[in-house]
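Re-run with default settings, no changes from the original entry. Doing this only to confirm the output is reproducible before filing.
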Amino acid sequence: MKKIIAGTVMATALLAASTSSWTTLDGHAYAAVEKNTSASHYIVNVNGKLMTVRSLHRSGTVLLAGSDMAKLFSADYRYDQKHQYYEIRRTSPNVRIVLQIGKKAALVNGKSVSLSVAPQRFGQELYVDAKQIAALLGGQWKAEAGVSIVSTSGSLRPFRETWQVNGSTATIHGLVLGQTSFYSVNDVAAAFGATVHVDKKRAWLRWKKATGQFSSTRLVMY
């Protein structure tokens, strides 16, 4: 099984098993603090490939563009202007999701499903809760340190390992996707006495050790 670790302290892949450590785009743990609406981009690892998705920050909530979410899952996306609803349709598995602006319920294959966050419109785009829409489309969405790992087939499997680092024992959480192991960047950093900062514009992880020394690595896949 292939395990990705770049450099001495750096794991390019990202997931902790404890939801309390996930700070962005994972369920209700939203990181945005902007009082006003702003749009930006978010880094996503989809089936081992890094991609970016448009994100919306509004009143402490982060949502992702519905059309971009559909693209990640190879699904069709359209807006029905007459009936004023948005539709995401995936053929394998066969899923049809109907969404409306501001409504905390969606129709999934004709059945009503409650949404944790109501879809919101910004410009010409509808923005939705990433984790829940991914699950409705038959996939999985996990996030840590500003980057999300997505499996479009729902095949993420959590694990944990015990590492010996400088004479101390550290528990490192991770996920298996296919033949690749992804390690929690926060756990790896903590094991080496470092903290993590994500530069989403340049797709870099920046590490700071207790000594004040900095190092960086680009978010890449091998």
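Residues 163 and 170 are 5 Å apart (CA to CA). The radius of gyration is 18 Å.
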